[in-house]
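Q: How do we represent a protein-ligand complex in a form that can be generated token by token?
A: Start from the inputs.
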Amino acid sequence: MLTGSIYFNVPQGTSMHFERCPIPEVILCTPKLHTDARGYFMESFRQDALDAFLGFAINFCQDNESQSRYGVVRGLHYQQAPYAQTKLVRVLHGRILDVAVDLRQEASTFGQHVAVVLDAQNKQQLLIPKGFAHGFAVLSSTAVVAYKSDAYYAPKAERGVYYGDTQLNINWQLPVDTHQLSSKDQAWPSLAEAEVFDSNTSLYR
Ligand SMILES: Cc1cn([C@H]2C[C@H](O)[C@@H](COP(=O)(O)OP(=O)(O)O[C@H]3O[C@@H](C)C(=O)[C@@H](O)[C@H]3O)O2)c(=O)[nH]c1=O
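Then emit the structure tokens for the protein with dtdp-4-keto-L-rhamnose bound:
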């Protein structure tokens, strides 16, 4: 499924594996695990490695954490420009299906999505760029999800797309009768009615 893999070693000897997903701006990151008799150590984030891979800097300013039960679906969320957010998502406990939906109006992949299982064992992280909606479904009994963002929470700019929109065709990997959503998330518009990202809006410059 994934293409464009590169193993990038930063000068200090630490490492992070980056893979471009089928929508190439979405990136799967796998930290290198150092295991020994005590357990393991890993660098969960390196600004220099990520910047070098991307070729530009992302300056994260907010860290978030949420805990959810099996069947919970949070999303699909984004903030409109100029409050758009890049998110770097990982799972501290449990397992989720993490989903990024392309909302860049002029992109060839507009309306398409990437869905990746992230869990506390694989320790993988998903980088979701500006211009995408984000959501996740909890596949384990509980899950603790942590993520960075590069723009502060701006409630007035908060937008969403209905997670079950048939046009999106997302397989949430959960029986439908187990889905639990906030009232806010049940009321988001379909993709056809959502405020998407204007191609004239430069999200990263
Ligand atoms: C997102 C956010 C929420 N809040 C508050 C608002 C509200 O009272 C409470 C719960 O908010 P929500 O119901 O929006 O939380 P949640 O549904 O977990 O929202 C999150 O979903 C995932 C999928 C994302 O991608 C995130 O960017 C964020 O939108 O926390 C903050 O104070 N700061 C924040 O950054």
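The two ends are 29 Å apart (CA to CA). Helices lie at 47-54, 183-186.
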